[in-house]
Design goal:
The chain has 85 residues and is of the alpha+beta class. The protein has one domain: GMP Synthetase, Chain A, domain 3. It is built from 3 helices and 3 strands. A 3-stranded mixed β-sheet has the order 1-2-3.
Length: 85
C-alpha cells in the first residue's frame, strides 16, 4: 500500500461519510530542507458532515487526529481545505 493510500484510508476511517481529494505535492518541494526526512507534502480537500459547526482550527485538529502518527512518520506538510456539507 502506498503512502497516499494509507493516508486516504486513515482519513476515511475517521470520516467515513467524507468526500476527499488528496494530492502528493512532494515533487514540488525537492531540495527543501523538510524533504530530506523522506516525509511528504500533501494537499487535502475534504468535505464531511462531521465538520458541521466546527471552526477551521477544530476541523484541522480533527483531520490531524484521524491521521494520528502519520503526521510524525509520513507527512511533513499538509495543506487542508476542510468543509462541511
Amino acid at each position: 500500500m502506498t503512502r497516499i493510500e494509507r493516508i486516504r484510508e486513515s482519513l476515511l476511517r475517521g470520516f467515513p461519510d467524507a468526500t476527499l481529494s488528496l494530492e502528493d505535492e512532494s515533487h514540488l518541494h525537492a531540495g527543501h530542507a523538510g524533504a530530506s526526512t523522506g516525509r511528504g507534502h500533501f494537499r487535502l480537500k475534504i468535505v464531511s458532515p462531521a465538520f458541521k459547526g466546527l471552526n477551521p482550527i477544530a476541523r484541522h485538529r480533527a483531520v490531524y487526529a484521524a491521521l494520528g502518527d502519520m503526521m510524525q512518520t509520513d507527512i511533513h506538510a499538509l495543506s487542508i481545505d476542510a468543509r462541511d456539507i
